[in-house]
């Protein structure tokens, strides 16, 4: 079957069925969450059990930055171990979920304001598989990644995400994966085992972000660089924050907003996650 024929079949199968899939922002934290049975991984599994089973999962991960926008388009994306200094058990994990060249084409067609490259080299980085393997351990649901164009600003990413909204109506679970507060240089390594320890500035800005999200005030979140010293400490580099903008850009008028895994780790990270449904 040619890619065009497969694309036409996929678009016939991927029909709107009157149900809107939720959209997620997941605070993914340490790669170790991919193999640990902890409060975070348990919540990901419970979340999947509560939601409709998606036809596919599209992840926007903090760990795939590119010049231009790319989408994985291979039949079987490789499991990427994009980290160092962790136990061998983590490096040995494979998550053999299929991809979907057809959904890659559908995604590229929806993004009208940029040219999208169909990528056959990347795969699933730890911002994707460490979460999805807990949600769908049978690895029987297609999983794709959409890259983040590092040459563009926050408004661009927010508006680009809105163009993907129709995928939610066709059974695709779209997930931003990063962290609202992510400052590795300021981690209190001696307090990693202290439950929910957070520096005052981290907790304050995390609460500010949550309030703005609950109020639907996305404009201030997009202009996070104007939110003062706390935001500057929380987002020293933007790659872990940008996935949140993708999730917020997918919000529909009827969506409710809820938070989960709302905890700090090591003082300068937060795992706070968002579901739109």
UniProtKB/TrEMBL annotation:
Name the domain of life this protein comes from: Bacteria
Extradiol ring-cleavage dioxygenase class III enzyme subunit B domain: from which residue to which, for each copy? 38-254
Query: Which protein family is it in?
Result: Belongs to the DODA-type extradiol aromatic ring-opening dioxygenase family.
- Which InterPro entries does the record associate with it? Extradiol_dOase_DODA, Xdiol_dOase_suB
Q: Does the keyword Transit peptide apply?
A: no
Task: Output the Gene Ontology terms for molecular function.
Answer: ferrous iron binding; oxidoreductase activity, acting on single donors with incorporation of molecular oxygen, incorporation of two atoms of oxygen; zinc ion binding
Q: Which cofactor does it need?
A: Zn(2+)
Q: Which organism is it from?
A: Cnuella takakiae
SUPFAM superfamilies membership: LigB-like (SSF53213)
Keyword hit for Cell membrane: no
This chain's protein is named 4,5-DOPA dioxygenase extradiol
Q: Mind listing the UniProt keywords for this protein, alphabetically?
A: Dioxygenase, Metal-binding, Oxidoreductase, Zinc
Q: Which PANTHER family match?
A: 4,5-DOPA DIOXYGENASE EXTRADIOL-LIKE PROTEIN (PTHR30096:SF0)
